[in-house]
Amino acid sequence: MHSMKNKSLVSITDFSKEEYLRILDLAGEFERKPGQPLLQGYIVATLFFEPSTRTRLSFESAVNRLGGKIIGFSDSANTSVSKGETLNDTIKIVSNYCDLIVMRHPLEGSARYASEVSGVPVINAGDGANQHPSQTLLDLYSIKKTQGRLDNLCIYLVGDLKYGRTVHSLIMAMSKFNTTFHFISPEELKIPNEYKIYLDSLGLKYFEHSDFTDIIDEADIVYMTRVQKERFSDPIEYEKTKNAYVLRADMLKKSKPNMRILHPLPRVNEIHTDVDPSEKAYYFTQALNGVYTRQAIITSILGLK
Amino acid sequence: MNDKKQLKVSAIKEGTVIDHIPAQNLFKVISILRLDKIHTQITFGTNLESKRLGSKAIIKISEIFFHDAEINKIALVAPDAKLNIIKDYEVVEKKVVEVPDEIVGIVKCFNPQCITNHEKITTRFTVVNKKEVSMKCHYCEKITDSEHMEII
């Protein structure tokens, strides 16, 4: 079954639940045996029009583990883009040089557009505030691995629920698994209505909270995100709220034994370092899972698995 | 018995009459249908009294008949528009417009960060609400509603 073969991965909604699950199974295979030289003779282009550390390195690590070669750039300043070349032209040219493009771009919709003009499949590694599907798949992998299942879980999402693209994509993906959601955020960064309408239409349960103390005891997953200063119209509001959504070790005392803490990273101060030694702190392993998940995505799209 | 209403815009022999256009959107309709590129006779009236719309506009286009897909594009700016198809001064068919499922190349995406506002790309939307028209951008996936809709 090669249903993802030669298809681009632009948005988490492009694929079915079965296709996600297949990627997660494959990621498990790569975790058991990361060094599989399936990509020998293949070239992958990583085009990062804006900076990224984890995403670019984990894609490049995935390609290297698979024995493939990488071309690309991590900053568009030294490329013809700075001379005014259009995305259309850049993608058309680069797709002549490689078998697969991994792209991050600051403009929303750029990945969809690239997938339409490219001669080879495109993996969206983030298009502005829009989509970042490989992050969502590694989140799903981390949830499935720590909980043993994806169905009927209780997920607490904390922090910036208004602008956070990882949060939005995760809600869309987990809504296929009868999830109960808890949304914890300051007033200014509440979950947009369209997601509540969507969950209502599926008959899924969700709860909104503004207070983040003593409420995570029922959680299977606590998904933390960064509350960024620039998201606040009023700097005083930011000062008031910036410490209200910080997870500390003492808040974990009554949490369920299976509970795990995820974070797309980078973290600033929203998870106190006193949480790090806890077995419930899963965010660093989550980042490692990114390599396996991206190995699974790349080999599926190239029809090698 | 001979009290026929006086026509504000004179009748045509053959062609299409588009009535009940909101007056403020007349020129948008003209641009969507590219009437400025048509060489047959076109007459229009605007700021005409209308019980339903307050003030309406009407366009009469001689010798031109539109495909449904083409005429439905105007539903975005004139949802109540009514069409009369005229043959030999008689109305032979009446039509209403319907908001299409897909909008291609007419509307600008309201998201300034959308790629379509930075490169020469034909915009594409899926209509998510036909009553109070709102549409989802095929590229950035953001919703543009009727309040923020700008015709290209």
Number of helical runs of chain B?
Answer: 2
Rg from Cα of chain A: 19 Å
**Terminal Cα separation of chain B, in Å?**
48 Å
Mean pLDDT of chain A: 92
Q: How many helices of chain A in DSSP terms?
A: 9
Helix content of chain B: under 10%
The major beta sheet of chain B can be summarized as: 5 strands, antiparallel
- CATH homologous superfamily classification of the largest domain in chain A: Aspartate/ornithine carbamoyltransferase
- Proportion of β residues of chain B? 35-45%
Name the features:
heterodimer; A: 305 residues; alpha/beta; Rossmann fold; 2 domains; 9 helices; 14% strand; B: 152 residues; mainly beta; Alpha-Beta Plaits; SH3 type barrels; 5-stranded antiparallel sheet; 4-stranded antiparallel sheet; 2 helices; 11 strands; 39% strand
Textual characterization of the structure:
The complex is a heterodimer of chains A (305) and B (152). Chain A has helices spanning 17-32, 54-65, 87-94, 110-117, 133-147, 165-174, 193-202, 235-241, 283-301; strands at 43-48, 69-73, 100-105, 122-127, 154-158, 180-184, 206-209, 221-224, 260-262. Chain A is α/β, with parallel strands linked by helices and 305 residues long. Chain A folds into 2 domains: 12-132 and 288-301, 3-Layer(aba) Sandwich (Rossmann fold), CATH 3.40.50; 134-287, Rossmann fold. Chain A is globular, with a radius of gyration of 19 Å. In chain A, 46% of the residues are buried. Chain B has 152 residues and is mainly beta. In chain B, the strands form 3 sheets. Chain B has a 5-stranded antiparallel beta sheet, with no helix packed on it. Chain B is elongated. Chains A and B meet through helix 4 of A and loops of B.
